[in-house]
Amino acid sequence: GAVVSQHPSRVICKSGTSVKIECRSLDFQATTMFWYRQFPKQSLMLMATSNEGSKATYEQGVEKDKFLINHASLTLSTLTVTSAHPEDSSFYICSVGVGGNQPQHFGDGTRLSIL
Amino acid sequence: GDSVTQMEGPVTLSEEAFLTINCTYTATGYPSLFWYVQYPGEGLQLLLKATKADDKGSNKGFEATYRKETTSFHLEKGSVQVSDSAVYFCALRETGNQFYFGTGTSLTVIP
After folding, report:
1. Which residues contact residue A87 at a Cβ distance below 8 angstroms, ignoring those fewer than 6 apart?
2. Residue B87: partners with Cβ closer than 8 Å, 6 or more residues away
3. Pairwise CB contact (< 8 Å): A103 & B34
4. Chain B partners of A105 at a C-beta cutoff of 8 Å?
5. DSSP helix/strand/coil, A100
6. Are B31 and B92 in contact (CB under 8 A)?
7. Which of A73, A86, B41, B74 fits a 20 to 30 Å CA distance from A29?
8. Which pLDDT tens digit goes with each residue over A57-98?
């Protein structure tokens, strides 16, 4: 069964709207979650590392005031795209890392379309 | 820094054809290597992995061998099916949970 639950799977909204995406770890406690962004026909680009109980670590070029990350519990991280614009339209995917040599477990992604 | 180079697609094959998707990597240490598959409109699913040199990962008829001497982790399948049509990503992780992904290779299998 699913290890990571991501919600919603699809969002269509008007420009200027803020959108919240949830990522839940179902099978284990995750002190670290990851947020990726994927443009059409491109690979995943790591946006930020979400750390439970502390501030997220953002990759270079990712606006932290634009993409707000909250990791308030060991099973939930949220990504809020604030005042979204059409250029923010993308596929956002979260993942949970277990550590060691274990693979990351990915959510099914959220397709965000800003009109 | 660490990186993954993956053969460009798209790749189109007839059903039952042999598949190879090349993947080479650059890493400073001893990474773990992964292949992920992404079906249309879905997130990534782990296909197979290898954690050390000469390990062979296998799943659903797909195989990949961790070749340290050639820094490669090529994905192979002897007989593809229409249901294998997807985008395949090669990835590595060296330390911690930082993953590096290749650009993905789109595979279309035609009946």
Report:
1. A114
2. B9, B37, B38, B104, B105, B106, B107
3. yes
4. 46
5. coil
6. yes
7. B41
8. 998 899 999 999 998 888 999 999 999 999 999 999 998 876
